[in-house]
Amino acid sequence: MIARIRTEKKISSLISGHFIDNPASGKVMEKCGFIPTGEEVVDETLHCGTGRPIRVLRLEL
User: Fold this and answer.
1) Would you give the DSSP letter of residue 52?
2) Which of 9, 14, 25, 33 is deepest in the core (most CB within 10 A)?
3) Given this model, what pLDDT does residue 8 score?
4) Within 10 A of 34 (CB to CB), how many other CB atoms are there?
């Protein structure tokens, strides 16, 4: 998917994230070239509105 997106001239970067309590997903993203942005967001739609922190990563194309 990343290789295909790299051919699109209109896309300069991708942003992704993973739940903090699932660091293995972050490691996979980093192996694909994503770099942590230092940002965290909270998904308020899960767990009955109690929120769940997400670590944000970016891939520059």
Assistant:
1) -
2) 14
3) 78
4) 22
The token duo for 19 is 């739940």
Which one-letter DSSP state was computed for residue 17?
A: E
Neighbours of 20 (CB within 10 A): 13
Q: pLDDT per residue over 2-61, tens digit each? A: 888 888 778 889 999 999 999 999 999 999 999 999 998 887 776 566 778 899 999 998
For residue 7, the SS3 value is: coil
pTM score = 0.80
The DSSP result for 39-51, as a single string, is: EEEE-TTSGGGT-
Which amino acid would we find at residue 31? K
